[in-house]
Design goal:
Blueprint lengths: L1 E3 L3 E6 L2 E3 L12 E3 L5 E6 L2 E3 L9 E3 L3 E6 L2 E3 L2 E2 L5 E3 L2 E5 L2 E3 L2 E2 L13 E3 L2 E5 L2 E3 L2 E2 L6 E3 L2 E5 L2 E3 L2 E2 L6 E3 L8 E5 L2 E3 L9 E3 L4
Parallel strand pairs: 1-4, 2-5, 3-6, 4-7, 5-8, 6-9, 7-11, 8-12, 9-13, 10-14, 11-15, 12-16, 13-17, 14-18, 15-19, 16-20, 17-21, 18-22, 19-23, 20-24, 21-25, 23-26
């Protein structure tokens, strides 16, 4: 995969990342953005499939990272935290599709968070589809302990073993487990608590 840091700028367009893997406790099998220092990455019209890592099966973006993703497809990626994307920084995702991604730790009874996305930073989502993603514990599609602003999303068939079949928002970082959601559709998502959305964040 690609490692982008040290104030680097990465542009990815019309690329395919297939069956990449990160090492033990690794992050971002395809793209690891701002792992140690600042990094900016722009991803356009690309495909991520079958990638795996501990954090962010396809992409991980660190605390000092800025990431934008548009018109891209994430399928069958896996991790413990964020089957497709793990975010600690600032990211925007638009016009993209997440399907069949999973978050589960086979060494910890299958626990996992954010089948498609695990967010503890700040993220904006628009005009994207999440289908058949799964998490062992929380957030079949999205597990959020940061800040999410989202519009025009479609969630179908996402599921988790515990909370938030599509979305789980919990009290977390200083930015605080918040979500603003509009013009979105939920169909056939399921969980033990909150088939579509589970919100345990303060306020």
């Amino acid at each position: 995969g690609m490692d982008n840091s040290d104030n680097g700028t990465l542009v990815v367009e019309n690329c395919v990342f297939l069956n990449d893997g990160a090492g033990l406790n690794g992050s971002g099998a395809a793209i690891d953005n701002a792992d140690q220092s600042n990094g900016t990455a722009d991803v356009f019209s690309s495909i991520f499939s079958g990638n795996s890592a501990d954090m962010g099966g396809a992409i991980a973006s660190g605390t000092n990272g800025v990431l934008s993703v548009s018109a891209s497809t994430f399928s069958d990626n896996s991790a413990v935290y964020g089957g497709a994307i793990f975010n600690e920084g600032l990211i925007g995702v638009a016009n993209s599709t997440f399907s069949g991604n999973s978050a589960a730790d086979p060494n910890a009874g299958g626990s996992g968070y954010g089948g498609a996305i695990d967010n503890i930073g700040n993220i904006s989502l628009s005009d994207s589809t999440f289908s058949d993603n799964s998490a062992g514990t929380d957030g079949g599609a999205i597990d959020n302990a940061g800040s999410v602003i989202a519009t025009g999303l479609t969630f179908s068939g996402n599921h988790t073993g515990d909370e938030g079949g599509a979305i789980d928002t919990v009290e977390g970082t200083a930015t605080g487990g918040t979500m603003s959601l509009s013009n979105s559709t939920f169909t056939g998502n399921y969980a033990h608590d909150g088939g579509a959305i589970n919100n345990t964040a303060a306020g």
